[in-house]
Amino acid sequence: MAELALARRYAGRELRGGLEGFGIFLACLTIGVAAIAAVGSVSASIVAGLQADARDLLGGDVEFRLAQRLLPDETVAWLGARGRLSTVRELRGMVRTLGGDKRSLIELKSVDGAYPLFGAVELDPPLSLGEALAVEDGVAGLAVDAMVLDRLGVALGDRIRLGSAEFAIRAVLVKEPDGIANPFTLGPHVLVSAAGLALSGLDQPGTLSSSVYRLRLPAPSDAKAVIKAADLAFPESGWRARDASEAEPQLQSFVTRTSMFLVLVGLTSLLVGGVGVGNAASAYLSGKVPVIAILKSLGAPARLVYAIYLLQLFLLALLAIVVGLALGAAAPLLLHALGPELPVELRLGVYPRPLLVAAGFGLLTALGFSLWPLARARRVPAASLFRNLVETARQRLGWGDWAATAGVALALAALAIVNAQDKRVAAGFLAAVAVALVAFRLVGAGVMRAAAAIPIRRRPWLRLAIANLHRPGAATPSVVLSMGLGLTVLVAIGLIEGSLTHEVAERLPESAPSYFFIDIQPDEVAPFKALVESLPGTSDLALVPSLRTRITALDGAPPRDHKTDPDARWILNSERGLTYAAALPAGSHVVAGTWWPADYQGPPLISLDADLAAGLHLEIGDTVGFNIAGREITARIANFRKIDWTTLGINFFTIFAPGTLEAAPQTAIATIRAESPAAEARLAREVTEAFPNVSAIRVKDALDTLAHILGQMAAAIRAIAAITVLAGVLVLAGAIAATRRRRRYEAVVLKVLGATRAVIARGFLIEYGILGGVTAVISVALGSLASWLVVTQLLAGEWVFDVGRVVGIALGGTAATLAVALAGTWRVLGARAAPLLRNE
Known about the structure:
This protein is α+β, with helices and mostly antiparallel strands. It is built from 27 helices and 21 strands. The protein has four domains: 186 residues, no CATH class; 191 residues, no CATH class; 211 residues, no CATH class; 171 residues, no CATH class. The strands form two sheets. The chain has a six-stranded mixed beta barrel with strand order 2-3-9-6-8-7. Strands 13-14-19-16-18-17 form a six-stranded mixed barrel. It is elongated. The two termini are 44 Å apart. About 1% of the residues have low confidence.
């Protein structure tokens, strides 16, 4: 305790002397911690918003959802006896002008008089929902998203056609409390009354739709008890029941996963900044060698020296972390002030968990990169006070120092993995970063060795540049490592985004159909086929039956009790589509098991997507239970398929063998290709006029929506990745600042020997140009490899090497290196010889 008190006193005295030389140390830690804290705080604010508005978002205390059917009256009565009941129908439809020249796919919601049970629907003009949707003189009203007005070129009060009836647009839908569903929607939202839906003729047996029954309970805490009682009373219902605690699990999972990836990228920037932390600590402690030697000469033990400077670095790191946490905690407030489009209103506040995680990352990074400089300082011998005048003594690190460093690295990795939703992804990301760190460290050492082996006798500016790359204390390893990691992340993100954009915008349309048509009734299949085949400029018609189902059992066990990988749980969360087929669909091939005969009529058999089956841990011969239109069906797995989804043809994760589902309520879906824009327009017009209940999904519109979502995600990731590059720039600036005194001395000596400022500047710029160029090349190689692995192995897509993106990033990184180098050495070039020689 006495030594600790003494260490605290000495550390305080030295810190009172100022923070000169610690600017990079503080900046690197502050930026990295702020990035991680900001991502975590924004994510926590969104999740808190979801949880706070859970009853509004769900639309009730309890929800029971079914696919393609309604509940029997006795079940509805049972539910209504438990609380206030609201019934909603959700489906897709086509709205079109009365002349039929313009049309739009919509997400249609039919609501009753009790809707909404929580929250309020906002309309413009501010009518009540009942007034907006009422049936007047045989014409029902609609509340439409403003996008419908834009697409159809109509205004409030105009009439449009929905299904087989005319409707009046009475209000613009500004907000619906339960409107947050899937961020990937195919059309604008439209509200209609139950009576209006009946007039449209869209709600037919087998239509792709959902029935949603919501309860507002007298006591919200009874939600789980009501669900349990309902499941016991109606075990064959086949509904998906959930309470407000599960209001938007998919959106919450999306936010959490995106946040996890952004935090990992932010951690990368913090690790890059850690190089600057280590450099600053090393430079500072190198200047303290005489002080340390004197302390040891006066009898100070090594542990006291270690404690003094560890405490100093800890206090400085704490200062940087506090500033970073303050900036990160303010991020939700800034985001709220800027007012970007968010899926839910942010709940502003201070969220301790993400701040504590960011602080832990910051402390471990500062400690990990300071351990070696501290270990060297502890081993400084007293004799170095005199020996350093002639030759700097080298200190070798002991096994304890290596063990301590490894322990901190493992703690940092453990903190990242424990706080990640997908621990495998987090572990893989950290492993990739570790490999990149080692690779760039080896590249830095290789550059130094190569520079030392190059014989240059002429051109002094080139000799100066090459010599600076391998001289003792050269910044080569630090520059290559810090700039390289940031550029690698940017290259990888750029190529992943470019490959996905190419897949969506260029490759998919080459083989994609022009339209998907859904909700084709069984008695409409033949006339639909005849109509489409009679239209000129159309080809490749495909028609298959479509049904909706919920998985109720996996190999005899409830899904919640069956081992399932996180990436496969999505198929268990809600209703999914399936079909039946005698022949293997195009775009699929069997990888395990055998396909059934075309005339099969035995017990139920199914074919599953191979990747999905692996995530569900199912084998050939296992059974899967389905609830289809209220009927429980158990089928045995006959085979696994690999599916090429890039064709955008009709395919399903689950296909039944013939003989089981032919009599079930169903519709058909179709795809068809049109050879020209005129043929596309004619196809949509003719089909929707002849079959008002059929919805036409234009593939290009769906791909544009997907491209927009991908672009938004890529922009967020690029913003965090840019912080990594900024950290690298700070490390580079710190490395140049640390060698400024030596470079000034070299410049003066060269000037005395006759060198001009231009010659010296050329040498410095070539030195950093070589470093920037080598770093860019290695970054391109590693970033390309990382993007190839992600695109081809994780996303099963086609990898595209975008030369323009890569060259732009490489040139930008090299230019940044040169710019920082020029800014850092400009004052050195202007140093006058006389004052320095006089002082020496």
